[in-house]
């Protein structure tokens, strides 16, 4: 038995039955369901769940790449480049593409530091050096 409760021959049988390539060799159309595995049939694009799409500018550098921000229930799902922008034409560098991670980081400062040397991250509950 395997960790999934199926024997190796059963797993191989399932793999060959669900793998798209043998079904396409057997004559099924590659543009039909033959291109889908059992695992991929239930997958949905995560942006399908978004109830709002906003625009923003990448916060990281002076290039000012335009972004599309997808959100659901006021939580950011995804950030991508805005294809309408003449500056970045839908692209983001790796730093800009990680903007959603910046927003979701529990250690992110959520209050202005007011010019002090040390800032207190309200959610993280830690002091940080803000200015040298
Ligand atoms: S995506 Fe990259 S190049 Fe564009 S503004 Fe952000 S950091 Fe700068």
Overview of this protein structure:
With 132 residues, the chain is of the alpha+beta class. It has two domains: 8-41, no CATH class; 47-132, ADC-like domains (N-terminal domain of TfIIb, Single Sheet). Helices cover 23% and strands 21% of the residues. It is built from five helices and five strands; from the N terminus they run αααβββααββ. The N and C termini lie far apart (60 Å). Iron/sulfur cluster is lined by residues 58, 60-61, 63-65, 88, 92-93, 95-96.
User: What spatial form do the alpha-carbon principal axes imply?
Assistant: elongated
**Which spans have pLDDT < 50 for at least 5 consecutive residues?**
none
Average pLDDT value?
82
Largest sheet: 3 strands, antiparallel
Q: Helix fraction? A: 10-25%
Corresponding CATH superfamily of the largest domain: ADC-like domains
Give the domain tally: 2
- Cα-atom radius of gyration: 23 Å
CATH architecture level-2 label of the largest domain:
Single Sheet
Give the topology string: H per helix, E per strand. Answer: HHHEEEHHEE
How large is the count of helical segments? 5
Termini separation comes to 60 Å
Strand content: 15-25%
**Bound molecule types:** iron/sulfur cluster
Provide the CATH top-level class of the largest domain. Answer: Mainly Beta
């Amino acid at each position: 038995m395997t960790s999934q409760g199926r024997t190796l021959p059963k797993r191989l049988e399932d793999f060959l039955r669900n793998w798209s390539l043998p079904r396409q060799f057997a004559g099924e159309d590659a543009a039909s369901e033959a291109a889908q595995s059992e695992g991929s049939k239930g997958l949905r694009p995560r942006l399908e769940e978004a109830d709002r799409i906003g625009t923003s500018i990448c916060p990281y550098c002076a290039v000012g790449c335009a972004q599309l921000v997808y959100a659901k229930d006021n939580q950011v799902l995804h950030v991508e480049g805005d294809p309408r922008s003449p500056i970045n034409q839908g692209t983001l560098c790796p730093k800009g593409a990680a903007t959603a991670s910046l927003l979701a980081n529990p250690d992110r400062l959520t209050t202005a530091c007011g010019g002090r040397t040390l800032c207190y991250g309200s959610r993280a509950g830690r002091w940080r050096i803000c200015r040298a």
